């Protein structure tokens, strides 16, 4: 009785909303009576596992009488959330997807060492999983994650737009790429204003790729900051030049990863750099105006270095890890084991996942369905991470990107920006 | 003279048109765009004539089931926070309206000062505490947070509205032998209904729309609708803007209708809450 | 007698005060302790004194965030007040369908920040946004917000004004309605022009309400986060970062809880100073205006 007035208010106000929500409750995904495994991941990790009839984990669910609930975030917020969860007394999450440039010693200590699990209840043909990727997930001698996906960056181009601009073959040197991007900055026959190339400005991947095309880097695997100054200057000058001539969008500073996909699908840009695994999405006829016309090649190195050294494309690897404070670790390991099996690895590859098993690339069915598999396998051979993990890596990346943006937008000379990168990032490097 | 009046009239009409455009155009545009077929959304120039389709809503239903679960969570949390805030504020507001002492005036200043603390400040320490109590990812934690950030305003509002109710009523009821609680809920609260409704509007709009707390304190079970929309912004592939517009529309319409129907109380609450606070 | 009364009213006061104490006051005090230590994930806190405060106050990124916040607050809030005042006077001068118009003006109050950002980001999309296209078709300058930091700030400001204009408008309008019509009648009889009536009657009587609206909006705009975060994430090159984003970055991107906590307390202190200053002004100016 005492709170009657209040109930009246809410009841009246929420008639409309309540009706909708009640329907949702009645028909929404059924809640399972058995166990639930909570997984913290990026949306793409969930998507490649398939759904409905194509659900690759159908049998696993049945056998374990368990449901899987995914919580998905964009890459950086996902890592922040995962570490926050793992640092608590207890977490609801059994499995978290971990990116390879984040596990420092401190972070790694938050996750369950998996060597013992692997010894007791081994993953099928573990030696088949690319040793470099396994190495990247071994911190202080402990295996803290099982590699599940790699995203190797390639150069995507819109064949139709290149043709319109009178270009017959994709670039084989960085100089050619810059020239072709300039030529494809035009108004297409369809009347769409086209920008030569679209790149996100909030990821270190792209400036690092340009620096590597000149044989340089941001931070080398052995933790050397800007090992070759001239190469980084070369890469940033190239980006600056492209922005100045309009072959990068004027909205460069706010362009995000997803915009790259949209722009390519809509024919608003001729080139972009994305993981090879995005090929299927870029050519999806339901979303893309240029389905079947968007192809990929290896990102080209400069003419001066061509044939002298291989291009080291950026590869980003994801692994499945178990927070030390997780509740049902046995169930989590069982999930990891199933996802790492040859069958699921192949199934995910068909759905557009970069497979971590060497044997998967040899599969004839995959070759037929995924034309990019062969190119990707070749690029992967010389690829490496954007930068190695260290405690202040997130701050270092933010500082690097800040200076890169200033240089590309022309607010600071390239030389000064590179000096500032060296000067500002140096104190963040591990001693 | 007549020309001047015409000019003034025209000026007013223009100003009214500008106000309407400013306030309503963004809302209407999103709602209309949610009915556009996928490729027309980003068409250059924008298409004003198109065949409306519910495709995006169907797609939302199919691939974002979690959004509808989140709507239900939002509803539960909003109702819970509103009840808690109203009952707590009514009790305290009654005391502040009917009694006075040095301590009471000091504590009401304290309530006002608390309103000045930015919510983002408490997110840092609350996360481990909430987790230690086992409250992480529960509806309860958001109910407590949302109610708490409005009980100070709620108390002030309730006091203001209760001040207008003659004390003789309390005394009469008290002589009839009614207990304090009975007086408050049977005699005072019904008369202070505009105040109750004003508090309700604030808490409901806030709880339904809040983002920061929901982002930090929920994961799967208690996720709210704005949080899912922000996740859609982050993880939507390519041109699925239509689904995003559909979800935004679904989230917006109930609370918009609510504000429309309750506009009197909103105005009364805003006025009393800020000038008397 | 005194203690008996206390015993009677305490249960009624308890819920509100317990909630505030446990959810706001104690955690805020804990933030002070956090701000005097350095800590991160998987790292035990170690005491460093006021070092975190020194570090934040010396950080150029914090300076620019603070400057951005102050400029945004000052410009957006005063613009909002000017427009709100204009609208209040227009409404008070008599309009047809006034109730409908009032509801229309209130509508943005119902919109969540997340949804508002979806709307405005799309309307002002530099390539396909309808507002951008319309401005371009009229050969007017467009908002180049994705490139020019100042334009991005304008968009964030516009979005803030859009979301909060209902609040400012309602405060001023209610105060305007409270002015007795006889005062204008008297002014007219004394031969005052419209402008004089506005200067001598309207403005002084609206003064306290306008000050209150300003105070609240200053304090709330100072904690602005979602609009800026969801529109620009503080970019390009951290040039549109506001203080709350700086705090978020320190805490959740760089996991530096010490400097995040220090930033949090700087925010609290500034909010209290703003409020204190205005309350003083109000005490002195407000009462004399109200006769």
Question: Short summary of the structure?
Answer:
The complex is a heterotrimer of chains A (431), B (277) and C (291). Chain A has 431 residues and is an alpha/beta fold.
How would you portray this structure in words?
The complex is a heterotrimer of chains A (431), B (277) and C (291). With 431 residues, chain A is an alpha/beta fold. Helices cover 43% and strands 14% of the residues of chain A. Chain A folds into 2 domains: 178 residues, D-Maltodextrin-Binding Protein, domain 2; 205 residues, D-Maltodextrin-Binding Protein, domain 2 (3-Layer(aba) Sandwich). Chain A is globular and about 60 Å long. Chain B has 14 helices and no strands. Chain C starts with a helix and ends with a helix. Chain C contains 12 helices and 2 strands. In chain C, α5 packs parallel to α10. Chain C is 76% helix and 3% strand. Chain C has one domain: MetI-like (MetI-like fold, Orthogonal Bundle), CATH 1.10.3720.10. The interface between B and C is large, with 79 and 82 residues.
The helix tally of chain C amounts to 12
The value of Rg of chain C in angstroms is: 23 Å
Structural class designation of chain A: alpha/beta
Strand content of chain C: under 5%
The CATH architecture of chain C can be given as: Orthogonal Bundle
What is the number of strand segments of chain A?
10
CATH domain topology of chain C: MetI-like fold
Q: Please indicate the percent range of residues of chain A in DSSP E strands (runs of 2 or more).
A: 5-15%
Would you list the SSEs of chain C in sequence order as H and E?
HEEHHHHHHHHHHH
The total beta strand count of chain C reads 2
Mean pLDDT across every amino acid position of chain A: 86
Mean pLDDT of chain C: 85
Quaternary structure: heterotrimer
């Amino acid at each position: 009785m005492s709170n009657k007035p209040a109930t009246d208010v809410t009841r009246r106000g929420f008639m409309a909303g309540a009706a909708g929500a009640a329907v949702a409750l009645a028909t929404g995904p059924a809640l399972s009576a058995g166990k639930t495994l909570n997984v913290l991941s990026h949306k793409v990790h969930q998507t490649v596992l398939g759904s409905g009839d194509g659900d690759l984990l159908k049998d696993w669910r049945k056998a374990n009488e368990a449901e899987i609930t995914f919580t998905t975030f964009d890459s950086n917020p996902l890592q922040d959330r995962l570490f926050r969860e793992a640092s608590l007394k207890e977490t609801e999450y059994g499995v978290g997807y971990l990116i390879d440039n984040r596990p420092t010693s401190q972070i790694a200590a938050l996750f369950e060492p998996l060597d013992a699990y692997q010894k007791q209840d081994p993953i099928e043909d573990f030696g088949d999983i690319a040793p470099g990727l396994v190495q990247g997930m071994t911190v202080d001698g402990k295996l803290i994650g099982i590699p599940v996906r790699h995203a190797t960056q390639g150069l995507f181009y819109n064949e139709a737009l290149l043709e319109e601009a009178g270009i017959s073959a994709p670039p084989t040197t960085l100089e050619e790429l810059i020239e072709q991007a300039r030529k494809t900055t035009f108004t297409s026959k369809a009347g769409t204003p086209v920008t030569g190339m679209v790149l996100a400005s909030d990821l270190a991947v792209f400036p690092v790729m340009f620096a590597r095309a000149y044989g340089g880097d941001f931070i080398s695997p052995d933790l050397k900051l800007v090992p070759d100054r001239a190469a980084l200057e070369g890469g940033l000058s190239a980006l600056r030049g492209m922005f100045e001539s309009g072959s990068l969008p004027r909205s460069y500073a706010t362009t995000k990863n997803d915009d790259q996909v949209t722009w390519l699908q809509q024919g608003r840009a001729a080139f972009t750099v994305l993981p090879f695994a995005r090929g299927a999405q870029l050519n999806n006829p339901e979303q893309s105006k240029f389905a079947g016309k968007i192809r990929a090649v290896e990102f080209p190195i400069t003419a001066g270095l061509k044939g002298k050294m291989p291009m080291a494309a950026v590869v980003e690897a994801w692994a499945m890890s178990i927070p030390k404070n997780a509740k049902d670790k046995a169930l989590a390991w069982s999930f990891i084991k199933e996802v790492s099996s040859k069958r699921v690895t192949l199934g995910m590859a068909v759905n557009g996942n970069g497979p971590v098993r060497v044997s998967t690339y040899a599969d004839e069915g995959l070759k037929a369905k995924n034309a990019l598999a062969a190119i990707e396998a070749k690029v992967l051979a010389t690829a490496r991470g954007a930068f190695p993990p260290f405690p202040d890596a997130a701050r270092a990346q933010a500082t690097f990107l800040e200076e890169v943006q200033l240089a590309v937008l022309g607010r600071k000379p390239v030389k000064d920006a590179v000096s500032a990168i060296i000067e500002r990032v140096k104190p963040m490097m591990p001693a | 003279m007549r020309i001047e009046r015409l000019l003034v009239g025209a000026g007013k009409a223009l100003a009214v048109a500008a106000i309407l455009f400013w306030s309503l155009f963004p809302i209407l545009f999103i709602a209309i765009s949610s009915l556009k077929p996928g490729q027309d959304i980003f068409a250059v120039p924008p298409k004003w004539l198109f065949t409306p389709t519910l495709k995006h809503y169907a797609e939302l239903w199919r691939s974002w089931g979690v959004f509808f679960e989140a709507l239900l969570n939002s509803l539960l949390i909003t109702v819970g926070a509103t009840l808690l805030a109203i009952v707590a504020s009514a009790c305290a507001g009654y005391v502040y309206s009917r009694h006075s002492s040095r301590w009471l005036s000091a504590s009401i200043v304290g309530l006002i000062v608390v309103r000045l603390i930015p919510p983002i400040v408490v997110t840092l320490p609350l996360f481990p505490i909430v987790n230690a109590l086992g409250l992480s990812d529960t509806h309860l934690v958001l109910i407590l947070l949302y109610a708490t950030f409005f009980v100070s305003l709620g108390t002030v509002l309730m006091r203001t509205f209760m001040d207008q109710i003659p004390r003789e009523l309390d005394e009469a009821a008290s002589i009839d032998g009614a207990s304090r609680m009975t007086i408050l809920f049977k005699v005072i609260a019904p008369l202070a209904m505009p105040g109750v409704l004003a508090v309700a509007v604030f808490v409901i709009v806030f709880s339904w729309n809040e983002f920061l707390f929901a982002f930090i304190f929920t994961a799967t079970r208690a996720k709210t609708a704005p949080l899912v929309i922000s996740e859609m912004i982050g993880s939507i592939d390519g041109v699925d803007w239509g689904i995003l517009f559909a979800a935004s529309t679904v989230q917006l319409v109930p609370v918009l209708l609510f504000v429309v129907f309750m506009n009197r109380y909103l105005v009364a609450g805003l006025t009393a809450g800020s000038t008397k606070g | 007698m005194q203690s008996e009364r206390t015993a009677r009213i305490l249960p009624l006061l308890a819920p509100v005060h317990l909630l505030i104490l446990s959810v706001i006051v104690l955690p805020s005090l804990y933030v002070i302790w956090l701000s005097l230590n350095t800590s991160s994930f998987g790292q035990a806190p170690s005491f460093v004194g006021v070092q975190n405060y020194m570090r934040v106050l010396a950080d150029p990124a914090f300076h620019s965030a603070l400057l951005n916040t102050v400029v945004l607050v000052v410009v957006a809030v005063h613009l909002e007040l000017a427009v709100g005042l204009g609208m209040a006077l227009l409404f008070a001068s008599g309009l047809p369908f006034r109730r409908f118009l009032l509801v229309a003006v209130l509508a943005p109050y119902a919109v969540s920040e997340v949804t508002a950002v979806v709307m405005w980001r799309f309307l002002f999309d530099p390539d396909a946004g309808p507002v951008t296209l319309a401005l371009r078709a009229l050969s007017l300058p467009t908002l180049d917000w994705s490139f020019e930091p100042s334009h991005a700030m304008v968009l964030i400001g516009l979005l803030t004004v859009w979301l909060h204009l209902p609040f400012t408008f309602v405060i001023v309008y209610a105060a305007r309605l409270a002015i007795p019509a006889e005062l204008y009648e008297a002014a007219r009889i004394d031969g005052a022009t419209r402008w004089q009536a506005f200067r001598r009657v309207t403005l002084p009587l609206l003064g306290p309400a306008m000050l209150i609206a300003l105070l609240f909006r200053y304090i709330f705009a100072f904690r602005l986060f979602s609009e800026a975060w969801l529109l620009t994430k503080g970019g390009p090159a951290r040039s549109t970062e506001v203080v709350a984003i700086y705090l978020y970055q320190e805490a959740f991107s760089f996991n530096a809880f010490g400097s995040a906590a220090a930033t949090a307390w700087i925010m609290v202190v500034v909010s209290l100073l703003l409020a204190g200053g205005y309350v003083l002004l109000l005490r002195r100016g407000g009462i004399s205006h109200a006769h």
